[in-house]
Write a structure and sequence with these properties.
This protein is α/β, with parallel strands linked by helices. The protein has 22 helices and 18 strands. Among the domains are: 231-304 and 347-438, Nucleotidyltransferase, domain 5 (2-Layer Sandwich); 540-568, no CATH class; 569-715, no CATH class. The strands form 4 sheets. An 8-stranded mixed beta sheet has the order 14-13-6-7-9-8-17-18. One of its GO terms (cellular component) is Golgi apparatus.
C-alpha cells in the first residue's frame, strides 16, 4: 500500500458500458508534494488510455434478465479494473456505476431490478469500496451528466486552479461545456454575474475542495435536450421527409452524398436490391448541403412557446449567454463530426465555421462511389468506414444548426466580430494559427483530449470524489452539488460526492519516495519483518547444511575466531559446548561427548585403559603416576562408580572435590590446558573392567552417523 488512491467509474450508456480507472495522491502525499506548492490546487487526477475498457451491448438490454447483468456484463469490466488497481488498494477503491440515456428509457420496475443486481454483484464478487448503493449505483439525469462534463472540461483546461491565466473578462474564468450523444444533448456554463443573479434559482450550487482544504464554489446552469442527439435528430428528419413527399417510394435527401441509397434506418441499399422495389419508401442522396441545412433547421423547434424567457431550443429556459466571457468546448459528436473526416480543427486549432462549412459542402456534393474508393484507400484513417462517411453530411448540418442557430455561437468570419474592411479569411487563419496560445478563448472549440486526457464526464465525477477526500479546512462545507437556494449552504437535495473524508492507515505513507531503510521501518513493512527474518534464517540454514561437514567446520572455526571464541581460548576457561541442535548443524560427532581439542601429544592427554582392580585408584597400571583425565563433566562417570568411590574415600577425594593441587573443580571437571586437545568420546563402558568388554551401544565399533570416531592410544 502506498501514497496513491484509486477510483473506478463505469459509464453505462445505451450502446455499451465503459469502465475508467483514475489515480491521485492521498491528502498527506499531495500536501507534501513540491513542498506544499500545489496545495492550493485540486487533486491531480491521472488516467491512461489503457485504463479504460468498453463492453457491448448496453446495460439496459438486461431489463428482462437482470440476474445476468453481473456474470454477462459487469464481470469483464470489474476484472479489468482489478488488474489496474494494486491488490492491497482494492478494498480502499470506490467503484461507481452511473447509467445514462438507455436506462432512463426502461420501465421503473426493470430499472430498479437491474440496479439492485448490479449492487449485489459488486458486493458479493468484488472487494471494491461500496458503502452506499444508492449513491454509487444509479441512473443519473442528463443535467448531472452535463454538470460532470463541465467539471471535467474546466479541470483539464485549468479554469479552477489558475483562474488568472483564463481571465475572460468581467471576473469570469470558466468555460462552457457542450455534449452531444445519440439521444440527447447537454449544455453547462456559468452565466455572467448579471445573469447569475437574475436566474439564481435556475442554477446548480457546485462545491469542490482544494488539497489544502479550502472550498471552491460555483453556480452553474445545466440543461439537457432529449431527442436532440444525433441519432434522434436523424429519426425526426426522416419523418419530416416522409411528410414532405407523401406516397413517394424514392425520397430525395440533400443530406446524403450523390447517388447513395439507404432505407429509413440508414442502411445502404445496393443496386438491384428487392428493397428498392418494396413497399417502404427509401432515400436517395442529392448532395445539396445548403438545402440540407435548411431542412434540418426546423428540428431545433425554435417555434415552441417559451414560458420562461429566455429560451434556446424546444422552448426550454436558458439564461442568456454572454459570448464575451462564455467560451465553449464541445465533446462527443461535436468532436467526431468535425474531426473524423474533416480534420480541419485538430486539438490545437479553433473551430472555424467558414472553413468547416466549405469542406462539408465540397465533400457532400461528391459521388458516393468515389467516396467509397477513398474509404478503401483509408484516406481518412482506419477508423473511418462507409457508415461514418454516409452519416457525416447530416451530422454536420445538425451540428452547425445547433451551434449557431440554436445556442447562438457566433459564426467566426461571418458574423459581428470581424472588423469592417478586413478579409474574414485572414482572421480565420489567425484564429487557426494562434488558437493554442489564446488558451481556448474562442467562442467554440471541439476537443477530445486536453493534456492527453480524455474529456469525459466520468472524470468530472472522480474530480468531485477525490476533492471530497481532502481534509476540510475550518468552516469548509461538504463537496457535492444541489439546488442553488439563496442563504442555504446545504440544500435538501444536495448530493454528496461520495462520502466524508476518511483517512486510511496508508495515507501517511510515501513509499515511492522513501529509501529502503525507511520503508523497512514504516508501518506496513514492520508487519512483514518477522516473516522476512524467518524466511532469511531458514534460507541461511539450508545453505549451511548443504555446504558439507568439512566446510561447516571451517566456517565455524572462522566465526569463532572472529568473535573471540576460537582456538586461542585462554587457559582455565571452559569452552561452552553446543546443544544437540548446534552439534548437528556445526558438525559435532556427538552432542554430549565430543570435545574439540587442539593438536598435542595424545599421550599427554588421553586416559589409558584401566583394569578393574585399580580403575579408581588414580593409576593407569599401578606403576605409572596418576594422571588426571581431561574430560567434561558430562563425560565423567562420577555417578556410576563402585560403592567405595565416594567423597569420604581418601583415594577419591581429589577427583570429586577438587582439592588443592588436583586441578579439579569439585565436579570431576578438569580445566583444559593450552597444550592441545583432540576429539574424544567416552562412556560408562569405556571405564568398565576390560574383561567385561564393551556394550553394543557403547562400542566405538558401532558408530552412530552423528558421532566422530576417536583414536585409541597406542603405547
Amino acid at each position: 500500500m502506498g501514497k496513491h488512491r484509486y477510483g473506478a467509474v463505469i459509464d453505462a450508456g445505451s450502446s455499451g458500458s465503459r469502465v475508467y480507472v483514475y489515480r491521485w495522491l492521498n491528502a498527506q502525499a499531495a500536501r507534501a508534494q513540491d513542498g506544499g506548492a500545489k496545495s492550493a490546487s485540486l487533486p491531480n487526477i491521472k488516467t491512461k488510455s489503457k485504463w479504460r475498457k468498453k463492453v457491448h451491448p448496453g446495460i439496459s438490454t438486461f431489463g428482462e434478465k437482470p440476474e445476468l447483468v453481473g456474470s454477462d456484463h459487469l464481470k469483464e469490466l470489474v476484472e479489468f479494473a482489478r488488474e489496474i488497481v494494486p491488490k492491497d488498494e482494492v478494498e480502499n477503491t470506490p467503484i461507481f456505476l452511473l447509467a445514462t440515456a438507455g436506462m432512463r428509457l426502461l420501465p421503473e420496475h426493470q430499472r430498479a431490478a437491474v440496479l439492485a443486481n448490479v449492487c449485489t454483484y459488486f458486493r458479493q464478487n468484488t472487494k471494491f469500496q461500496l458503502p452506499d448503493c444508492d449513491l454509487h449505483v444509479q441512473v443519473i439525469p442528463g443535467e448531472t451528466e452535463g454538470l460532470y462534463g463541465w467539471v471535467a472540461a474546466n479541470y483539464l483546461l485549468g479554469g479552477f486552479d489558475a483562474p488568472e491565466k483564463h481571465d475572460h473578462g468581467k471576473g469570469h474564468s470558466t468555460y462552457g461545456f457542450l455534449d452531444m450523444g445519440g439521444a440527447s444533448a447537454q449544455i453547462a456554463f456559468a452565466p455572467n454575474a448579471t445573469e447569475a443573479e437574475k436566474h439564481a434559482n435556475d442554477l446548480k450550487l457546485l462545491r469542490l475542495r482544494k488539497v489544502n482544504g479550502e472550498a471552491l464554489e460555483y453556480r452553474v446552469f445545466v440543461t439537457t435536450w432529449l431527442g436532440f442527439g444525433a441519432n434522434e435528430a436523424r429519426r425526426r428528419y426522416v419523418e419530416s421527409l416522409l411528410e414532405a413527399y407523401p406516397g413517394s417510394q424514392e425520397l430525395p435527401d440533400p443530406c446524403l452524398p450523390v447517388g447513395l441509397r439507404v432505407d429509413q434506418t440508414g442502411h445502404e441499399l445496393a443496386l438491384g436490391s428487392a428493397d428498392l422495389n418494396g413497399k417502404q419508401p427509401h432515400l436517395i442522396g442529392t448532395g445539396l448541403f445548403t438545402e440540407c441545412l435548411k431542412r434540418t433547421f426546423p428540428l431545433l423547434e425554435k417555434d415552441v412557446p417559451c414560458d420562461d424567457q429566455p429560451c434556446l431550443l424546444h422552448g426550454q429556459h436558458t439564461p442568456a449567454i454572454d459570448f464575451d466571457v462564455n467560451h465553449f468546448v464541445g465533446v462527443s459528436e461535436y468532436w467526431h463530426t468535425t474531426h473524423e473526416v474533416f480534420a480541419m480543427a485538430h486539438k490545437d486549432k479553433a473551430y472555424d465555421f467558414h472553413t468547416y462549412q466549405k469542406q462539408v459542402t465540397d465533400f457532400c456534393s461528391r459521388d458516393w462511389q468515389d467516396i467509397v474508393v477513398d474509404v478503401g484507400q483509408q484516406k481518412w484513417g482506419k477508423k473511418v468506414d462507409e457508415k461514418t462517411v454516409e452519416e457525416v453530411c447530416f451530422k454536420a448540418s445538425w451540428l452547425i444548426n445547433v451551434l449557431h442557430d440554436g445556442i447562438g455561437v457566433p459564426r467566426v468570419g461571418l458574423e459581428p466580430g470581424a472588423e469592417p474592411g478586413k478579409d474574414s479569411g485572414n482572421k480565420t487563419k489567425a484564429i487557426v494559427d494562434k488558437a493554442k496560445d489564446r488558451g481556448f478563448l474562442d467562442p467554440f472549440q471541439a476537443v477530445d483530449q486536453i493534456e492527453d486526457t480524455e474529456v469525459s464526464w466520468t472524470l468530472g465525477k472522480m474530480v468531485l470524489y477525490a476533492s471530497s477526500q481532502m481534509p476540510a479546512a475550518d468552516d469548509a462545507l461538504a463537496v457535492g452539488f444541489g439546488s442553488n437556494v439563496p442563504g442555504v449552504k446545504l440544500p435538501s437535495d444536495f448530493q454528496y460526492a461520495g462520502g466524508k473524508y476518511d483517512p486510511l492507515p496508508t495515507d501517511m505513507e510515501d513509499n515511492e519516495h522513501q529509501d529502503w531503510h525507511d520503508r523497512i521501518l514504516s508501518s506496513s513493512y514492520s508487519r512483514r519483518v518477522p516473516g522476512i527474518l524467518i524466511f532469511m534464517l531458514i534460507l541461511v540454514l539450508a545453505l549451511y547444511l548443504l555446504c558439507g561437514r568439512e566446510r561447516r567446520l571451517t566456517l565455524r572455526s572462522k566465526v569463532l575466531s572472529l568473535i573471540g571464541g576460537g582456538p586461542s581460548t585462554p587457559r582455565g576457561r571452559r569452552r561452552k559446548q553446543p546443544g544437540i541442535l548446534g552439534g548437528k548443524l556445526f558438525g559435532n560427532a556427538s552432542p554430549t561427548y565430543e570435545r574439540v581439542l587442539e593438536a598435542g601429544d595424545p599421550e599427554d592427554f588421553e586416559l589409558n585403559d584401566v583394569a578393574s582392580e585399580d580403575r579408581h585408584s588414580g593409576s593407569s597400571n599401578g606403576v605409572d603416576p596418576p594422571r588426571t583425565g581431561r574430560s567434561s563433566g558430562w563425560a565423567t562417570p562420577a555417578r556410576t562408580m563402585s560403592p567405595d568411590f565416594s567423597r569420604s574415600s581418601p583415594k577419591n577425594k581429589g577427583y570429586l572435590d577438587g582439592t588443592p593441587g588436583s586441578g579439579g573443580n569439585g565436579l570431576g571437571i578438569t580445566p583444559f590446558e593450552r597444550g592441545g586437545l583432540i576429539v574424544r568420546n567416552e562412556s560408562k563402558e569405556r571405564l568398565a573392567p576390560r574383561e567385561f568388554g564393551r556394550s553394543r551401544t557403547g562400542s566405538p565399533n558401532r558408530r552412530s552417523p552423528l558421532m566422530t570416531p576417536f583414536k585409541e592410544s597406542v603405547d
